[in-house]
Amino acid sequence: MRKRLIIITSAGFAGLTVLAMCLLLIQSSEFRRVSKSADLQSVAMSEMAPPPAASGSSRLVASAPGLTVSEPSSPAESSGEAAPSADPIQVSVPQLAYAYVLGYRLPGPRITDAQQAHLALCQNLGPTRCQLVSMRHGSSDEGYANANLQLRVASGIAQNFRTDLTKAIAASGGRAAETNITAEDVSKDLVDTEARIRQREILVSRLTDMLRNRQGRVAELVEAERSVATAQEELDQAKGWLRQLRTRVALSQFTINYVPAVAVEPSPRAQSGRLGDAVVASAGMVFAIGRNLLILLIFLTPWVLIALAGTLLVRRWYKLRPVTPAEA
């Protein structure tokens, strides 16, 4: 009986302890919920509080160093005046690389002078605005020259330079035979190359700092040195490609071709000359026929001899064979 009483008392005490713990937990969670809602309410009230009014007639409020924000206008002002227009959208100008292919036709003896005149025009502009890439000059079997000239000219003066080239050709008695102008948009290549350069510079800087501070294991430092060398090589290549693209945009490519203009003028010839030409042509034809016949004879002679020998052998065999009584 006493043992049962002790068990009942212990169970009741344990139940009261669990009930007290549950009440404490419920009260604590309720307190946290109330405090959290109070904090949210205070934050919302602070955000909803109106900003302090500006003093005097000033319409600008400083929000950061070097940055000014316009104070919103009153409803009366907004109804009486139109809202200020937004900032214009920035449009980047395409970066174009121009290539000119020009062909001029002029008398053959004057091609050299015209080419030298064009080269002199380029040299007068100076190396910063005109550069010689290649120069070629030759002559055909008939004595007429043909030439080619390749230049790089500043894009800003390319059209005026083309006009000067045509004027120099007109002064030499020639004319323009071909004009081909093409433009390649390299804006995307420029943007991609600049972005690649920035990324490689950041990578090289981080790896260099890690090597300078000696952070990490020996294997990691060795791998970092290799990565720095690779990234630096890619960075140099990207910078070289960027310089080449900017040069293509700044300097236009000129390819100038000089073609001789051959004028065929009929010249009267004497009748004796025509008769002589006919005799020469006839003799040439006879000679050609005789040569072809000789070639045919040389080609057929061995086969004729073989056929003749075979015929003689067949006739001899036919004569020497024994005669049968039926044939007699």
UniProtKB/TrEMBL annotation:
The chain crosses the membrane at residues 293-314. It comes from the Bacteria. The keyword tRNA processing does not apply. The lineage of its organism: Bacteria, Pseudomonadati, Pseudomonadota, Alphaproteobacteria, Sphingomonadales. It comes from Sphingomonas psychrotolerans. Keywords: Membrane, Transmembrane, Transmembrane helix. Residues 70-86 have a biased composition (Low complexity). Residues 110-315 form the DUF4349 domain. Residues 48-86 are annotated as: Disordered. Pfam families: DUF4349 (PF14257). This is DUF4349 domain-containing protein.
